[in-house]
UniProtKB/TrEMBL annotation:
Keywords: Hydrolase. It comes from the Bacteria. This is Carbon-nitrogen hydrolase family protein. The lineage of its organism: Bacteria, Bacillati, Bacillota, Bacilli, Bacillales. Residues 4-238 form the CN hydrolase domain. One of its GO terms (molecular function) is hydrolase activity.
Amino acid sequence: MRKVKIALLHLLPIAGDISYNQKLIEKAVRCAAVKEVDWIITPELAVSGLQFSRKIGTHWINQQPDEWMTRFMDLVKSLQVNVFLGCPEKSKEDKYYNSVFIIGKNGQLLGTQRKISSVTDDWSTSGEFVEPINVDGIKVGLSICADSYTPAIANTLLEKGSEILIAPSAWGPGLHGPDGEWEQRSIDTGLPLFVCNRTGEDETVLFWEAKSLVIKNGEHLLSHSSKQSAVLTFEWNLDERDVISDQFDVEYLK
């Protein structure tokens, strides 16, 4: 049986407090690595928080890997895990992107996905393409938060050979909250979809009831929401395309 052990970092980042968020990510990654996971996934913009630009602007955003990410990549290598990291980046053309970086067990960058839908991100530029990224021989498609709102991106990832969809997100319930989009994308594509969401609150968005999910054929196989940061661990059967775990193994971060 081919399987993969995954940790979703259901974190409580603070918008604009970069140092705090970086330390929280490092702590959560170390915690997950102890559980001998293969993949560790953070929420969207885990490094910055969602609405950081209203507090600290964008001048601090660097081309990646910057000094901190270089150290973080060394940490990932020392722990021998793959990490999906939500972090803003600046391009050589001085454009800003809402990105997810996939760092391999060797500490090298396996790939980057830039968020396509930037309607609510007044600081960011839309990414130009989506492409599956090979992680441990598995083609993984990334659909960052609102990129799951319509079928186009998920369908493109399916057409390009994705075997699993991962949705790093900062999408809280409410008037503009998720309303069946993730479930429908799993139905549209026939692919499992893993949502790594967050908790806490930013200036105008509440995440306290936001859910991290494992979805198959529109059904929630695993679900979690909490008031504090948590590491959610589960095992996935790659051959059967189903969960091995009947619930998340949850460890709260203090």
